[in-house]
C-alpha cells in the first residue's frame, strides 16, 4: 500500500495489484438509499444492519472501559475495607483529583479516535500510526503539569478546606498514582488507534487478565506486606503500565496492524499545533462532564461529618462511574462508526449510526437505573461494612438513578461534536 504522507483525508494512491478494501458497512448506505423499499422496510433492515455492527464494536469497548474502571475502583474498595479514613482518602484521591487527569487524558486522546477513524475510512492507513505517535507525544507533555497537581495535592486540598487527616492520607495515595498519569498518556491513544480499526477484543482480553492480576497484587500489598495507601496506589500504577505495554506489543506483532503501524516517524512532530487545538477542544468537552463529580466530592469533604459524607457520595459516584463507562463505550463505538462512514463518503449511514447508538445507550441506562433503585439498601456493602454509610447511600440513590439516565445520553452525543 503506497500512501501519500500528508495529513489530509484525500483518497490514497493504491497500487494496481493490491485489493481496495470495501467501505465499512456499505450495505447500510445502500439500504438507506434504496427507494424501491418502503420507508418502514428500509428502517427495519437498516436497524438490523446497524445494531449488528454497533454491538460488535460497542460490547468489547464497553468491557474494556468497565474493566479499566473496575481495576481502579477495586483499589478504592480494598482501601475501604481498611477503614473509613482510608476509604475517604482513596475516594478523594480517585474521584476528586485522579478523575481530573483521567478526563483530560481521555478527552485529548479522543482526537485520535476522530482522525484515525476518518483516515481509516479513507484508506489512509499509514496516517493512523502517525496520529498515534503525535497524540502520545502531546499527552506525555500534558502529563507534566498534571503531575505537579499530584505532588502538591496536600496543600491544594487543605486550601480547599479539607481536613488535615483526609488531605494527608489522600496526598499519600496520590503520590503512588503519579506513574499512572503517563500510563494514561500512552493508553488512550493506543486504545483509540485500535478502536478506529474495529480492533477491540484484544484490549478486552488484556484488561480482563490484568484485572485478575491487579486484585491479587493489591491483596498481597495490603494484607501480606501491609503497604497501606501508598502501596495500593503504586500497584494500580503498575497495573496500568502493564496494560499499556501489552497493547503496544499486540500492535507490533499483529498482522491486523501491519498497514497502520509502520514504525516511528518524524511526521509525529509535524502539525502539532492543529492537533493541540483539536485535542484541547475534545478534552474540555469531556472535562466539563467530569468536573461536577469532583466538585461534589470536594464539597462533601467540607460537611459536618466529612468521612461519612465522602464515603457515601463516593460510593454513588463510583457506581455512576461504572455505568458511565457503558456510555463511553457506546461513544467510542459510535465515533468509529461515524468517522469510518464519513471517511468512506456515507453521510446517511453516519447519521443513522448516531440515532441508533443514542437510543441503545438510553435504553440500557434506564434499565441500570431501575436495578440500582431496587438494590439501594444493600449496594453500599460492596465498598464498606458501615451501616451509617449504607443508610446515606440509600437516601442518595434516587438522585443517582436520575444521573444514570442522563449520563446514558449526554456522553454518547458529545462524541459526535468532533465531526
Could you describe the 3D structure shown?
With 419 residues, the chain is mainly α. It has one domain (41-418). Helix content is 77%, strand content 0%. It is built from 14 helices and no strands. It has helices at 26-33, 39-80, 84-121, 126-151, 153-159, 164-175, 178-195, 201-224, 228-253, 272-300, 306-343, 347-374, 387-407, 410-414. Helix 6 (164-175) runs parallel beside helix 9 (228-253). Keywords: Membrane, Transmembrane, Transmembrane helix.
Key descriptive features of the protein:
disordered N terminus; globular; 419 residues; 14 helices; single chain
Give average pLDDT, whole number.
Answer: 80
The ordered string of helix (H) and strand (E) elements is: HHHHHHHHHHHHHH
Number of spatially distinct domains = 1
Helix content: over 70%
- Please state the CA-atom Rg, rounded to the nearest Å: 22 Å
> Any idea what the shape is?
globular
Uncertain parts: 1-25
Structural class: mainly alpha
Protein name: Multidrug and toxic compound extrusion protein
Transmembrane segments: 49-67, 99-116, 137-160, 166-185, 205-225, 231-252, 282-303, 315-338, 350-375
Subcellular location: Membrane
Membrane topology: Multi-pass membrane protein
Amino acid at each position: 500500500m503506497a500512501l501519500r504522507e500528508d495529513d489530509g483525508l484525500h483518497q490514497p494512491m493504491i497500487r494496481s495489484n493490491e485489493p481496495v478494501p470495501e467501505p465499512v458497512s456499505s450495505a447500510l448506505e445502500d439500504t438507506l438509499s434504496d427507494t424501491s423499499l418502503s420507508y418502514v422496510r428500509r428502517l427495519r433492515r437498516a436497524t438490523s444492519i446497524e445494531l449488528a455492527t454497533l454491538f460488535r464494536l460497542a460490547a468489547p469497548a464497553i468491557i474494556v472501559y468497565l474493566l479499566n474502571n473496575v481495576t481502579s475502583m477495586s483499589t478504592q474498595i480494598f482501601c475501604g475495607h481498611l477503614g473509613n479514613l482510608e476509604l475517604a482518602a482513596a475516594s478523594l484521591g480517585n474521584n476528586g483529583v485522579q478523575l481530573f487527569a483521567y478526563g483530560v487524558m481521555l478527552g485529548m486522546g479522543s482526537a485520535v479516535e476522530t482522525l484515525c477513524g476518518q483516515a481509516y475510512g479513507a484508506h489512509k492507513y499509514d496516517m493512523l500510526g502517525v496520529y498515534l505517535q503525535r497524540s502520545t507525544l502531546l499527552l506525555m507533555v500534558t502529563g507534566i503539569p498534571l503531575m505537579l497537581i499530584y505532588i502538591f495535592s496536600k496543600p491544594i486540598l487543605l486550601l480547599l478546606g479539607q481536613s488535615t487527616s483526609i488531605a494527608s492520607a489522600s496526598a499519600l495515595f496520590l503520590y503512588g498514582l503519579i506513574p499512572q498519569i503517563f500510563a494514561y498518556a500512552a493508553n488512550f491513544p493506543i486504545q483509540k488507534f485500535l478502536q478506529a480499526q474495529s480492533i477491540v477484543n484484544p484490549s478486552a482480553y488484556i484488561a480482563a487478565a490484568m484485572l485478575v492480576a491487579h486484585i491479587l497484587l493489591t491483596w498481597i500489598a495490603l494484607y501480606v506486606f501491609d503497604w497501606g495507601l501508598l502501596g495500593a496506589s503504586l500497584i494500580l500504577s503498575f497495573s496500568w503500565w502493564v496494560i499499556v505495554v501489552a497493547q503496544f506489543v499486540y500492535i507490533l506483532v499483529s498482522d491486523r496492524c501491519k498497514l497502520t503501524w509502520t514504525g516511528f516517524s518524524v511526521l509525529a512532530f509535524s502539525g502539532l499545533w492543529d492537533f493541540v487545538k483539536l485535542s484541547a477542544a475534545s478534552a474540555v468537552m469531556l472535562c466539563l462532564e467530569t468536573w461536577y463529580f469532583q466538585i461534589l466530592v470536594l464539597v462533601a469533604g467540607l460537611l459536618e461529618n466529612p468521612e461519612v459524607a465522602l464515603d457515601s457520595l463516593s460510593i454513588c459516584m463510583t457506581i455512576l462511574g461504572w455505568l458511565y463507562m457503558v456510555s463511553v463505550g457506546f461513544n467510542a463505538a459510535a465515533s468509529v462508526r461515524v468517522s469510518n462512514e464519513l471517511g468512506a463518503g456515507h453521510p446517511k449511514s453516519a447519521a443513522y449510526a448516531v440515532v441508533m447508538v443514542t437510543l441503545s445507550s438510553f435504553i440500557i441506562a434506564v434499565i441500570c437505573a431501575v436495578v440500582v433503585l431496587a438494590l439501594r439498601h444493600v449496594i453500599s456493602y460492596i465498598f464498606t461494612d458501615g451501616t451509617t454509610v449504607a443508610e446515606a447511600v440509600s437516601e442518595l440513590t434516587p438522585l443517582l438513578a436520575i444521573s444514570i439516565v442522563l449520563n446514558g445520553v449526554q456522553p454518547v452525543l458529545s462524541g459526535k461534536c468532533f465531526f
